[in-house]
Amino acid sequence: MNQPRIKVCGMTSMQQVEELAALGVDYAGFIFYEKSPRFVGSKVVAANLKAFSGIQKVGVFVNETAEKILQIVTDYGLDAVQLHGDETPEHCKALSAETTVIKAFRVKGDENLNEVLASYEDCVDYFLFDTKAQEYGGTGKKFDWSVLERTSINKPYFLVVASVSMMQRS
To answer: Which pLDDT score, from 0 to 100, does residue 137 have?
Structure first.
């Protein structure tokens, strides 16, 4: 079995990023969704993050245009994007030609995910499963993971554990 990888989201300072890298965390997430209380905005200087290479940098976006996402990827030196909104497979495919794409799915725990996942398999690199909330973004709460046992998952995926995401390979 592959070793789980850890992603911590919501970074708002370079000090946090440096500390995560020193701890051996694999991925640091930066929220580029203005309605989030953890919106990175001007809290991290783009050039400083771009120059930092001790951790994989993931930008988290919600229903943003491909053009704006790709500009932020370039400006901040992001290694991947996490799409946490209602992005279509076509939107994901356009981005995946340029960068690594993680598509987040908001899960209640009682749904059948097979059909929706199948439509994204050819256009993203990873899946991420998070608890469905009223608003976009993570809740830090665990959904009924048994839904994944009933799901055919043919991609590596991140599973939100509290406010830490761990990647599993299928």
So the answer is: 64
Architecture of domain 5-168: Alpha-Beta Barrel (3.20)
SS (H, E, C) the chain: CCCCEEEEECCCCHHHHHHHHHHCCCEEEEECCCCCCCECCCCCCHHHHHHCCCCEEEEEECCCCHHHHHHHHHHHCCCEEEECCCCCHHHHHHHHCCCEEEEEEEECCCCCCHHHHHHHCCCCCEEEEEECCCCCCCCCCCCCCHHHHCCCCCCCEEEEECCEEEEECC
Active site residue 144: no
- Catalytic member of 9, 26, 92, 123: 9
- The residue from 26, 92, 123, 130 that is catalytic is 130
Domain ranges of the chain: 5-168
Degrees, nearest 5: CA angle 113-130-12: 150
Structure pTM? 0.89
**Which of the listed ranges 2-16, 31-45, 142-156 does the model predict with the highest average pLDDT?**
31-45
pLDDT value of position 24: 93
**92 in active site:** no
pLDDT confidence of residue 140: 65
